[in-house]
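Friendly challenge for the regulars: who can give me the structure tokens for this chain first? No prize, just bragging rights.
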Amino acid sequence: MTAPDSPANLSRVPCTVVTGFLGAGKTTLVRHLLENAGGKRIAIIVNEFGDIGIDGEILKGCGIDTCPEENIVELANGCICCTVADDFVPALDRILALTPRVDHILIETSGLALPKPLVQAFQWPSVKSRVTVDGVIAVVDGPALAEGRVANA
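First reply, four minutes later:
Bragging rights claimed.
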């Protein structure tokens, strides 16, 4: 096992997965993280589910210097958990080829995706040497959950 501060880990780009039900506030959280990035260059993979990519467009139009439009990759072929091999790895390749190199990657899953298959993909040889998961954040709509729902509808 590699030590957390070893050179192999320091060369890998950290990645945070943001997951949660539809309407829970994932895009709001991602935008907040972008606005408070402290100068770090951030790239985003947005997993949309449906014909219209609303979350990707919201983030692309945010105008934040540390996350230019070319650093936002939108995946609209369904749940990322089902299309990891087809969509995620090429999106990751595209992001890792950016110059200047990104400091951090955020992945916003669709409200329908299961994060486990995505997180498991970080163990694939083609991914493991270049990117590391630093966390999985599950966003919930607290008031709705307190009322026995998963999100305000």
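The helical segments are 7-10, 26-35, 54-60, 84-96, 115-121, 125-128, 142-146. Residues 12-132+141-146 form a domain with the Rossmann fold fold (CATH 3.40.50.300). Your move, everyone else.
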